[in-house]
Amino acid sequence: MSVEQLIARDLSPAEPIVDWLDFDFDTRQVHAGEYPDLNTGLRVPPIALSAGYVFDSFDDQVDRFAGRSIDPIYSRQGNPTNSVAEERLASLEGGTVSVAVSSGQAAISSALFTLAQGGDHIVSTASIYGGTRILFGRSFKRFGIEVDYVWDADDDAEWERAIRPNTKAIYTETIPNPRNDVTDLRRIAAVAAKYHLPLVVDNTVGTPAIIRPFEHGANIVVHSTTKFLTGHGAAVGGAIVDGGTFDWEAAERAGRSFPLITAAPRPGLGSMLDRFGTGAYARAVREAVVNDIGPSLSPFNGFLLHQGMETLSLRMERHVDSSLAIAAWLEEQPEVTSVDYTGLPSNPLYDLAQRDYAGRTGSVFGVTVRGGIDGAREFVNGLRVFSRMTGIGDTRSMIIHPLSSTHATFAPEINERLGITPGLLRLSVGLESARDLITDLRAGLDRVR
Ligand SMILES: Cc1ncc(COP(=O)(O)O)c(C=O)c1O
């Protein structure tokens, strides 16, 4: 038998597995993705520290390398500890398959590199995480992928002007920071569907405990799992979730090509779409991008991620309860000129926040103090419980001054348009007692003149 004949043997296609489908969110966050350890009976899925895998036989090696078996070859492609986290997250988001990677930035890059290549174009909403704007403006640009921004997602003419024949994705976030300006996903999903474009949504700040973008028309979800999903600020990580909903063939017919998903990767092997169906996009992310470029997640961090997710809904409940109380209190303080929390009735996006986010718009928001940058400096230096650091979404409360940090490299007119003013601070409300946090914030405000 020749190598070609061996590779050409007919094997049944592997199906993506999503378990625990009929159970409630709180049950799935504890159990989805777990597997019994057949050797030891360990209850908690262990940390599988092995760079590679043993092949069952010569033919098994052939099948794995031929892409006809979903069993991994090497831990750069996948790992049992990370699989627990991947299946759990896919279940919580309501997607088909997820791929864990080494950071949120790696998730965004891998998600979009699977859709776009040099010469292609992406349209993003303007209010996104500063690091993503830097990624788009520097590395994506160097690789020949251009990103344009839409400032008013309700403006059809703006979308019309931004979307081009070579556009390959629409990108947005559920709850952007620092302004907590929640996104109308259904509105953007309608635009994406009209132009046959996959809608990629960063749900880091929302988390599936608050909003599940697939239920609002998104096709792909990305996460910085560094934040609420892992939850304790101890491990950097990221993930991409395939909603399994995008019609790749219709997009091709409409002139938008996605070769990593719809084209045969080599003679004799079907396309990802032929072989993996509703998990085709995730398979392309894993095999064609993550395996090539190599941003795999350490199984140690994968362990912290699947364990962190076990308590996600409980933590988010506390994060949001405290944020609602703190935002309402801040709004009453004389040293505060504005609070950007869309869960507050005074916010212009309050109705949208109620409709799509049940009024519970996470725990990352902006507060502006009197006195511009001098007021901000005094306020921040007067805090003890809030940590002065970059980062959001862990047990500890954190504060940062966006204009001199996350947004320091942007042109003044961009920051002005984004509302990043000298007196604006970003808060990430943690799990400490809300009373202590308010006492801490009061001590900081006492220093503001
Ligand atoms: C919304 C959002 N997306 C992505 C990232 C990047 O994630 P990471 O720091 O894990 O690379 C961040 C980081 O703050 C973020 O806030």
TrEMBL record:
A GO molecular function held by the record: transaminase activity
UniProt KW keywords: Aminotransferase, Pyridoxal phosphate, Transferase
Cofactor(s) for this UniProt protein: pyridoxal 5'-phosphate
Protein name, UniProt field: Aminotransferase class I/II-fold pyridoxal phosphate-dependent enzyme
InterPro entries noted in UniProt: Cys/Met-Metab_PyrdxlP-dep_enz, OAc-hSer/O-AcSer_sulfhydrylase, PyrdxlP-dep_Trfase, PyrdxlP-dep_Trfase_major, PyrdxlP-dep_Trfase_small
Gene3D superfamilies for the chain: Aspartate Aminotransferase, domain 1, Type I PLP-dependent aspartate aminotransferase-like (Major domain)
Family matches, as Pfam families: Cys_Met_Meta_PP
Family: Belongs to the trans-sulfuration enzymes family.
Domain of life: Bacteria
